[in-house]
């Protein structure tokens, strides 16, 4: 395929891409997705059959996301939803936006490979998803691209504007050994808890940056958004024990540390122990549309709350039958639009239940060999460079 060259494609939400341009965007995203997932096509968890629920949830996305987006778009535009509140510190995050087309298109590939759909089917639904994703991404990003690999620098993402970045930088505090240890412990506890809430997926952890400060340093932002509104029923009685649910960890780092963000918004740092190089940092809680900087004491107390919640949730999930745990995980991975629907004011207009056919597929896909075979064939197809085949019957 030739390169996408139309000047309005990346920055004008009202421009309607041609089918060829859509397929070039799909191909580009699918190539990056394949390259990333080729590194880890075996997903492991002590509590969850990850390959099983990934297959089930992405099939669920393919069945439900287009109609859910039509309902959301009937109440608010993508631009209005993105503009509603801070660009960081909620589950209306870049990682969930980037995953929207990736998971949906993977579901499409699963149905095709299972012989239940033809590759030429579903164009209207596919364009519904792609249009919403593109317009929302143009509204969310400040760097004029749709994918992290196309940003400057490559493999970065920028969603915070200059004013908000300046506000964050003004509130960073220089770190010493004690402060670094406190933040390190908090980040580890919160990350582990956020993963457990999300059934060992990283949908609650989103990285953006590097935000270059022009003096040999940059800011890296990590958002961690837990369920504070009742989206996940397996947290009933536990979420209420946390005083805060949405956090932003801001780090000022020297340019001797490198930060690369993959296609969906997970950062990799070199050296791996980048926290040892942090120059200044701050933990923020996000509530009511504002960032509240936490003190050293606040962070220490929050760490204790999170540790208690983590233990309670682990005990609950460990006692939950495997089939029910996997249904939790399937729901979690296919509920990425809940935050968007809440902002649009149509949460109660959407049926969030899992399709009967998907729920019934558990017995089939709980076989590790079946699930792993599908995961490997979809994420790392041997016969093409992209995870995704063209839409609309194109070749």
Question: Could you explain the architecture of this structure?
Answer:
The protein is α+β, with helices and mostly antiparallel strands and 395 residues long. It folds into 2 domains: 19-153 and 323-379, no CATH class; 162-318, no CATH class. The chain is 46% helix and 12% strand. The chain is built from 13 helices and 8 strands. It has helices at 19-37, 50-75, 78-83, 94-113, 123-140, 162-170, 177-197, 296-318, 322-333, 338-344, 356-360, 362-365, 368-379, and strands at 173-174, 205-212, 217-225, 246-254, 258-261, 267-270, 280-287, 290-293. α2 runs parallel beside α9 (322-333). The longest helix is centred in the N-terminal third of the chain and has 26 residues, at 50-75. The chain is globular and about 60 Å long. The mean pLDDT is 94.
